[in-house]
Amino acid sequence: MEHGRPMTCIALFPQQFQVLEEPPDDYDVDVRILWGPTGTSKSIVLIIKGLFLLRKGCATVFVLQTSHDGAAAAYLVRHQVRETAGQGVGSVQLVNMAGVGKRDIFGQYQWTEEGKNKLQKLWQHAQTHGRVHILADEAECDVIAEIYRALKQRHVRFTLWAAGVKLDVPADMKRHVRYLTQPLRSPPAVVREVEQADDMKRGTVPAYTRPPVSAPCDGPPVLTVGHYNGYPGDRQGHEGDRPWQCARCGELVADMLRDLRVGCQDNAPHGQGGLTFSDVFVLGIMKCDTDTPDDDIWSPAPFIRGLESRGVPTRKVAHNDTEAVRQLAEMTSGPTQRAAGRGRDEAVTVANQNTVWGLERPVVVYLETGYDEASVNADATGRLRSMSRSTAQVIWVKNVRT
Ligand SMILES: [Zn+2]
Predict the structure, then answer these.
(1) CATH of the domain at 62
(2) Is residue 250 predicted with pLDDT exceeding 90?
(3) Ligand 1: distance of its center to the CA of 306 in Å?
(4) What are the C-alpha distances in Å from 110 to residues 66, 75, 107, 319, 373?
């Protein structure tokens, strides 16, 4: 069931090569806006661009975080460029520009003092070193457009490569847009679910195009677990309105993970390392923040209790715990690293789907929200935010009316 390609040995296809090899429009301004749906190698293209820049002798590459949900993606890009280039901590620097600007009531973008200072830092770097190099993954359209304009107005030389799923940039930037639309992360069985996300049906996220090579197989079918909800039917031991409020659902998912041989010691016939608990994300719109009490209706504490009762170790990652998010993003999931990490701190990650935006794992357990009016939209987002993280298997815990 190994469809995922660890970043260290990913194969690039002509669509990605073309973006990397195409010369910049002019020497002074090298801008690329990589726009495409989830799992189309946008991050990998950014990482390779960062490596090219360092290899060509630039001293510093700046990695921008442009939204609160963009932390994991920024940590991942910084880590991958830094580790692969091996040029020291200072060679790749993260600048957090989340929440340091917004549009006012007239639609004009306004930076806070902090935002102005950070922009100043980038500008000064360009003045001192002749150029500033910027990468931004999971980029916010507004922030990227404002940085682009600010640097242009100051007549400095710059590199700005940004990637994201919703990057409908203003007219003056359209010529820099390049589409990456071939699904390279998830097998067809998962891609078909992601395509039904609201944002993809509406077209705010570009549609997938045919993959460069046909997939070797459809991938394992999406597995489902029923969370029996509602009255007066037999709930079969299920409790709570939502799957994350239900220990029984946790038990059923734990059994399914065991059937998939996740965390089993004897599942590595080719010496590559089989699936470990760290290869699993449990995602949804539940709250995993450090200040969410266990009895909160948004807390996944009951589901976690069910998993643990069946011997599945868990690690809850809070959206507001930047250190935990950084560690998660830097946890490489390639076979070598997995084999090395076997037995040490192995645990299933339980998180809000926005916390892991930009990351991927072989197995994703998606905890559906439900069937009421508000939840319909949330589940439409869940396809894009949760299921698309999977490189192989999705387990979908569905709300079933009894
Ligand atoms: Zn249940």
Answers:
(1) 3.40.50.300
(2) yes
(3) 10
(4) 14, 26, 9, 26, 35
**CATH no. for residue 240?**
3.40.50
pLDDT of 388: 96
Q: How remote is the CA of residue 387 from the centroid of ligand 1, in Å?
A: 19
Residue 380 CA, ligand 1 centroid: distance in Å? 20
The total of structural domains in the chain comes to 2
Q: Which tens digit of pLDDT belongs to each residue from 298-350? A: 999 999 999 999 999 999 999 999 999 999 999 865 444 555 554 457 899 99
Q: In this model, does residue 243 exceed pLDDT 50?
A: yes
Which of 145, 179, 213 is where one domain is finished?
179
CA 224 / ligand 1 centre spacing (Å)? 12
Residues 106 and 169 in one domain: yes
Quick one: three-class SS letters along 142-210?
HHHHHHHHHHHHCCCCEEEEEEECCCCCCHHHHHHEEECCCCCCCCHHHHHHHCCCHHHHHCCCCCCCC
- 12 and 142 both lie in a single domain: yes
CA of 248 to the centre of ligand 1 (A): 5
Q: Is residue 193 part of a domain?
A: no
pLDDT of residue 336: 46
Domain that residue 230 falls in: 222-401
Give the Å distance between the CA of 256 and the centre of ligand 1: 14
- How many A from CA of 234 to the centre of ligand 1? 12
Whether 311 is in a domain gets the answer yes
Give the per-residue pLDDT at 3: 40
> What does the pLDDT look like over 84-134, one tens digit per residue?
998 888 899 999 999 999 999 998 999 999 999 999 999 999 999 999 999
pTM: 0.92
Q: Ligand 1 is a single-atom ion; what residues have CB below 5 A from it?
A: 227, 238, 246, 248-249
Residue at 215 is within a domain: no
In a domain, 186, yes or no: no
296 with 324: CB under 8 angstroms?
no
